[in-house]
Amino acid sequence: MVNHLPITKARINLGQLAKRAHIKGEYFILEKDGIPVIGIMAADELEDYLELKDPKVKRQIQQSNEDIRAGRVRPAGELLAELRQQKQRSQAKVSRKA
Is residue 2 a contact partner of residue 27, using CB atoms and an 8 Å limit? Predict the structure, then answer.
């Protein structure tokens, strides 16, 4: 939910706005003379947003999307099942040696 309010009102209720952004995930657009000038959002969401602007992260996402389109990926459940089987085989080898 995006809330618009004047900066003067936000200044008075800044603690409450910060709490609502952090706990409830609300967004606030602060306006000066009716013109939007700044936004408030939870810090961890802002960090995620800024990370997505990083060129290295953009390249990794692009490469992942290309891998998906080319069929070079598989479901996580499949990988986990394979890893469990490998672990069981190695545990069986160890128990046979003992």
Answer: yes
